[in-house]
Amino acid sequence: MSSHREHIDTLRRWTSAKIVGQERLIDRLLITLLADGHLLVEGAPGLAKTRAVKVLAEGVDGDFHRVQFTPDLLPADLTGTDIFRPQDGSFHFQKGPLFHNILLADEVNRAPAKVQSALLEAMAERQITVGAQTYQLPGLFLVMATQNSIEQEGTYPLPEAQLDRFLMHVHVDYPDAEGERQILRLIRKETLDQEGEADKPAAKLTQEALFAMRREVLQLTMTEPLEDYIIHLVMATRDPGKYDPALQGVFHFGASPRATLALDRCARAHAWLDDRDYVTPADVQAVAPDVLRHRVALSFEAETEGLNVDRVIAQMLAVVPAP
């Protein structure tokens, strides 16, 4: 067992106590944290998307900032800007929200393209450029974005290039009846808790411990046949007819090499969270839908037949042979 297991278990317990009925979302948040990526969470309003990110950030030792994305947002509202100092005639750079360790981009698809491009550089390069100067972002830097799947008025669809920068794209659904009951009781308890002690984690996950966990994740055993399996899954999105003639022409475009890297990192993190020092095909299959769904697009013919991306990915997982 990893010496850091107790730290991640503490964070998982804290998050699970505050977020009810969304165990899969919590699992994906932890995988993103361990795999050093960014997460896009999509679902109907009121499903604890924003709350989940805020609760996770409370359990991690780092700066947290929330930005509510709106159509009038400017790139400088994220990156920061040069401020003129009249007392000495110089300019001073005032850092923006992107310089925090964890950034919650709430309703990210409400911001226009120029703001998306500023966020894109930060996510991809871990740096921002203002004027002629380039500034490095902190070592721990995660963008956790949310978007509403219902409202489309006044929104700007995220460019494919930016979607590809997200490690995973997670869909959240409504909780069941028992989950709804637990939510009701939890919020009632929080409302009655005047002291606020229950709203503070017992111990925060330090950045040093997190970086050590990430190194352990990268050191997990992954056999060559399993690497081949990951590669074949990605190749199947580019030429699905090679694996099943019924899937020929189902994709308009397939996944990029970032999908291969993301499958590797996420499968490793999934295995580590399961307290194993080796990766199995089940780990790859568990994370594949969230890793691939935003990196592929269905063809017009597939859409007219009523297919959706998740259904096609499930068919693909069924036909690509696992080791």
Tell me roughly what share of residues is in helical segments: 40-55%
Please count the beta strands (DSSP E, at least 2 residues each). Answer: 11
List the total number of helices: 13
Rg (C-alpha, Å): 21 Å
Broad shape: globular
**CATH level 3 topology of the largest domain:** Rossmann fold
Helix/strand class: alpha/beta
Task: Explain this structure.
Helix 9 (224-238) crosses helix 10 (257-273) and helix 10 crosses helix 11 (281-292). The chain has 13 helices and 11 strands. It is 45% helix and 16% strand. It folds into 2 domains: 5-199, Rossmann fold (3-Layer(aba) Sandwich), CATH 3.40.50.300; 220-319, Orthogonal Bundle (Helicase, Ruva Protein, domain 3), CATH 1.10.8. It starts with a helix and ends with a helix.
Task: Label this structure with key terms.
Rossmann fold, alpha/beta, Helicase, Ruva Protein, domain 3, two-stranded antiparallel sheet, globular, single chain, 13 helices, five-stranded parallel beta sheet
Summary, kept brief:
The protein is built from 13 helices and 11 strands. The chain has 323 residues and is α/β, with parallel strands linked by helices.
